[in-house]
Amino acid sequence: MNFATSRPRTPPAAPECARGYDALVLTAEAGLALLRRPGVRTGPVAYDHESGCVQLLVPEGSAEELPGLLEWLEWGGIELGLAGRAPYDPREAAVWLRPPEPGLEADRVDLVRLVSAAATECHRARLRSTAHKSRDQPLAFS
Q1: What angle do CA 95, 34, 47 make, to 5 degrees?
Q2: How far is the first Cα of the chain from the last one, in angstroms, to the nearest whole number?
Q3: C-alpha angle with apex 33: 29 to 37, nearest 5 degrees?
Q4: 45 within 8 A of 5, measured Cβ to Cβ
Q5: CB 77 within 8 A of CB 123
Q6: pTM of the predicted model over 0.85
Q7: Domain locations in the chain?
Q8: Digit-coded pLDDT (tens) for 30-68
Q9: DSSP letters of 3-64?
């Protein structure tokens, strides 16, 4: 995993953590691809070393909306590896890829656009993973 372009930061000070957050949780591969996409606006973004997941902070209540949004965006029933986590305490962040700071508030995120972009990157990551696995499998002839 290459984090050379990211600037890990320590968790924010207590006043920033006082607000309620949820998180969209996705694989590191999908999360980093999402962060490289032009035009995708996120709030703060954390990386969890233990799970290997990227966590996009979103307004409180967003995790509950995730299944309905995925259905509405026609991703329902597709295993994406995208989940909501509620509540999320920013003090738990292992490494900040985009730390909380003025202008990068989670409540300024367009949740529909963010979920759409996250679902797309999760799907692409799963397709790449499946393609790598099939290349590693020997051909079976009967």
Answers
A1: 15
A2: 39
A3: 170
A4: no
A5: no
A6: no
A7: 15-112
A8: 999 999 999 999 999 999 999 999 999 999 999 999 999
A9: -TTS---PPPPHHHHTS-EEEEEEEHHHHHHHHHSTT---S-EEEETTTTEEEEEEETTHHH
